[in-house]
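Task: sequence design from structure.
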């Protein structure tokens, strides 16, 4: 009987050790999975950020800078994210709102557009959905434009850092007023801006490079990305 009890006790000790080992392996596996997911989340988010910032361009009305606003927690720019572009098939006169174009299908109503000839660029907005050979502007043209003038859609893009109640932050992306979280569960994130000389940029007109620094709250992985941008159209 005593030998049986000793054997049972020994078995329980062995089983307890096995369960503890399995539990430790499970915690380690879950920790690794969390770290991998957090790392992939940052990498995927920054790939989107990088691709869109590279497309930043000035609004064209005054040949302005690519960035419309800048700060450590947010910045704004315009870009043709979906590559929607066409040309005038016939000359457009000052005061005209309906334009004859090559193809403007899938251009949504309300989007900002920029018309650029060799001499000048102006901004406007679509009053209706684009059609195959026509767009309708919300405001009459302030200048005349020749046939062959380039026309493209301008998306208004904003990236910003949003704190939450858990003490972490999210990198948010807003396009034409619609926002979504690009990267979640960050310990910190900030933007910096530099001129062509490498010195900190003093205003949006002098920005030649945008830097983002992001640190994961789950893994403490820190990532820094530098993206060069165009200052003019």
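Answer:
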């Amino acid at each position: 009987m005593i030998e049986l009890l000793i054997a049972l006790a020994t078995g329980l000790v062995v089983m307890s050790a096995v369960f503890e080992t399995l539990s430790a392996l499970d915690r380690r596996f879950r920790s690794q999975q969390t770290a991998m997911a957090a790392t992939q989340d940052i990498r995927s988010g920054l790939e989107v950020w990088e691709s869109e910032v590279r497309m930043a361009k000035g609004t064209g009305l005054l040949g302005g800078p690519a960035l419309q606003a800048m700060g450590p927690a947010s910045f704004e720019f315009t870009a043709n994210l979906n590559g929607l572009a066409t040309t005038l098939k016939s000359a457009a006169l000052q005061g005209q709102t309906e334009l004859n174009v090559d193809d403007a299908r899938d251009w949504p109503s309300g989007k900002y557009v920029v018309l650029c000839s060799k001499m000048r660029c102006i901004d406007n907005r679509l009053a209706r959905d684009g059609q195959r050979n026509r767009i309708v502007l919300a405001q009459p043209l302030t200048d005349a434009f020749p046939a062959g003038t380039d026309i493209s859609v301008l998306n208004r893009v904003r990236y910003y850092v949003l704190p939450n109640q858990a003490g972490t932050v999210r990198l948010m992306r807003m396009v034409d007023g619609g926002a979504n979280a690009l990267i979640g569960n960050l310990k910190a994130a900030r933007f910096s801006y530099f001129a062509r000389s490498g010195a900190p940029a003093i205003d949006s007109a002098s920005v030649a490079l945008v830097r983002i620094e992001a640190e994961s709250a789950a893994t403490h992985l820190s990532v820094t990305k530098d993206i060069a941008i165009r200052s003019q159209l």
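The radius of gyration is 27 Å.
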